[in-house]
Amino acid sequence: MPKNKLKYSIKTLKIGLMEVHKLQSWIVPITIFDSVFKSIAPFINIYMVGKIIDRLLKTKDINNIIFLIGLTIGLNFIIHLISNGLEHLHTILKDIMIQNQDMKINEKIINMDYEHIENPKTHTLRTKISEAENMNGGGIIAFVRYLGELVKGLATVIISIIIGAGLFKLDMTGVGYLNFINNRIFSYGFLVLVLLGTIFNLHLKTISDKKLFKHFSEIMSANRILAFYYERIQDYNAGKEIRLYNQRKIFNEEVGGFIQSLKGLFKKIESMNTKYSGIDAFISSLLGGMVYIFVGLKAISGSISAGSIVQYTGSINQFMAGSTEILTSINNIINNNQYLQLYIDFLNIEGEKYKGTIPVEKRDDNEYEIEFRNVSFKYPGTDEYVLKNVSVKLNIGERLAIVGMNGSGKTTFIKLLCRLYDPDEGEILLNGIDIKKYDYEEYMGLFSIVFQDFKLFSFSLGQNIAAAVDYDEKFVEKVIEDVGFIDRLETMPRGISTPLYKDFDKDGVEISGGEAQKIALARALYKDSPIIILDEPTAALDPIAEFEIYSKFNEIVGTKTAFYISHRLSSCRFCDEIAVFHEGSIIQRGDHEDLLKDEDGKYYELWYSQAQYYNEGETA
Ligand SMILES: Nc1ncnc2c1ncn2[C@@H]1O[C@H](COP(=O)(O)OP(=O)(O)OP(=O)(O)O)[C@@H](O)[C@H]1O
């Protein structure tokens, strides 16, 4: 939090209010109405019961008394009816607001530059927003709730002052020996005492709220870690590792440790609550008692009626309750600001990527030439260059194989080519023009990519391949055939309409890793873009499936320009050129035969270290 807390709080509140208004423009006015009506309800009884008692004592006019009772019931009924209606409306608006907020967050994620998606800071921010909402009741929804409580507290205090003010009128007409009760100094002294008592209690509440908030923040951190462990334990994908590596013990110890620390925190909160609520109860009872004595003496002195005892004691009690509510809600609003800030920070994540305007030339001949010119890159928030001065040119229709050891920068090279990241130095050119200058969507449309960590979704097979709800069934079937998935398709209950996975449909099919890879490959072929990029596209395929894909590779790739990353060097032989990456640089280039001639080269080393398992060294 910045130094100037007040300025910061007011600024956050303003942004919070504007954001609430954008999400649901009616929620604030309805919250205010709802809170005001809720605060009126208790005063009807306080006021009317006093009047009924007075009437009962003064007159025997039964009709008049019945009228007052009827009026009280009627007013209660109307207020409750309006209040219930407002509350119902408020709940509906709140639900709409929650949905709108979810939509807004999802839209933000979908439109965010990819580098933010991969950035751990973005994940932490998103997780914290969810945790604030789910575990700590904080965030934008809580902001509306606290706002309502503040309005209710304010309305309660104002009404109680209006109804209770008469108690401090100096009426000297009463019994002589009790005249001191109407003495100006005594009367105002009593008022000051009540106010001081209330302020003291509020002060205590602020201290306890602050301490509570600190403990809740600690609980929240511990809960985050616990939630992570629980998620892992319940994740069936992790089940194998937990059993095979006997990780039960480490989980139990870690989880046990956190549960123990949580128990300690809950104990602290409990004893703190007991202490502060004890003091609060003592002071409140003392003040309450004094109020009853003061009001009672006023009644005995004759300066107020017996019925007014209910009116005045009730309004003073409401005044104290209202003030507490004001202070609690202000504390909550201030504490909630940090959660509100998370949401604001998330929405403020900028799309920094420059998105050009030049249209990408549509070419039937697929004549797209790609060049990396002295490109260097490091991931945001890191100091190490992952790519160093990379220069490579890929002519139209050529196939470039990219090989190299783990972590040498191969996938990063592809991410830059697809503008998931922009280079820190150098430039990438498409047909001689910096790729940043092209219209982003059009440029992305040039690529069909299968990443190593591709994802399929719980849609139908056809929708997964077409990445669309409606698709060309014939073409889907063709690409399924191309990738060798046709036999498996025939076993699927609803053909290409069969859902993948069982998340939403019991007819959904589970697929193996290799089958998933074939589907991902089919998706890239369906997109039919002029440039195809395959990052380890056959890693999960059995040798026969892999052989089938390679034997068809020329047919599949056709005239497209292709980038091909693989650790299986034998599968790179069909490429026109092979680029060997090492520690972020291209250290060798050439075709397979040329590269093998350099016996001191990395390619030679990689090739022979792999080949010996196949042919005991008789390779090439
Ligand atoms: N999002 C990221 N943030 C920070 N560093 C990253 C990120 N992604 C990759 N790296 C680092 O960049 C380096 C190159 O990674 P890259 O994925 O490009 O290697 P690779 O050659 O494709 O490896 P592999 O053969 O294992 O797939 C690695 O050291 C990796 O740890």
UniProtKB/TrEMBL annotation:
Classification via CDD domains: ABCC_MRP_Like (cd03228)
UniProt keyword Transmembrane present: yes
Membrane topology summary: Multi-pass membrane protein
Keywords: ATP-binding, Membrane, Nucleotide-binding, Transmembrane, Transmembrane helix
Positions of the ABC transporter domain: 370-608
Classification via InterPro entries: AAA+_ATPase (IPR003593), ABC1_TM_dom (IPR011527), ABC1_TM_sf (IPR036640), ABC_transporter-like_ATP-bd (IPR003439), ABC_transporter-like_CS (IPR017871), P-loop_NTPase (IPR027417), Type_1_exporter (IPR039421)
Annotated ABC transmembrane type-1 domain residues: 35-335
Domain of life per record: Bacteria
Localization, UniProt: Cell membrane
Primary subcellular site in the record, as a coarse category: membrane
Recorded GO MF terms: ABC-type transporter activity; ATP binding; ATP hydrolysis activity
GO cellular component labels: plasma membrane
Pfam families from the UniProt entry: ABC_tran
Transmembrane segments: 26-50, 62-82, 150-170, 185-204
Name of the protein described by the UniProt record: ABC transporter ATP-binding protein/permease
